[in-house]
Amino acid sequence: LIKSAEALEVLHEVEAVAFDKTGTITEGRPFVTDIIPEAGMSKEKLLSIAYSLEQYSEQPLAEAILDVGKKMGVEILSSEEFEAVPGRGVKAKIKNNDNYFTIIAGNRAFMEEENVDVSFVQSIEEELAEHGKTPMYFAQNGKLIGIIAAADLVKNTSEEALREIEEMGIETIMITGDHEKTAKAIANKLGISSYVAEVLPQEKDAVISKYNKENRKSISRCDSR
Question: Out of 20, 67, 98, 205, which one is annotated catalytic?
Fold first, then answer.
């Protein structure tokens, strides 16, 4: 889909093409790969809490958690005051054993903003990321209770398309909100020239502008829409 005549006219001058990762390079339908509870928390309980929180979210990672939760038949807990924080995660109050607990879920940056210590699981995060998995942290009342990781399958046409673009002498750039090591693993696998990781949704256009200011013309942006 070409959005404007101008884009078509300058196509022969393009030196770099920037791609959103999720839904463009990948299928956009992540699936849960790992459920890692902290001490005193079972996998079933962690998934129950995650399901109860994520049922109101519209993010692809939330859908992956709901899918596995349905298959395992986890208990759905009462929740209220749901809030989504773009590019970070979600939070709500979840009722458990007649008491409401504040539950937050999201990336490392969100945990740090909420003063949740995740430093002691850095090695786990890095190992997941190196395998192209995206870790999502879950905390209850300010304390980490576990990690749920997911992966998003690369489209079967992506590798060939990216290779053909590179063979034309055009640089390929992947832009993603994923952890730096997750992005690196995917970029290396597909032979992508460069990548920009841990980018918030509202920051992606700024990344394109930066590349353009470096005297490179790029299609702004190539995505699935």
Answer: 20
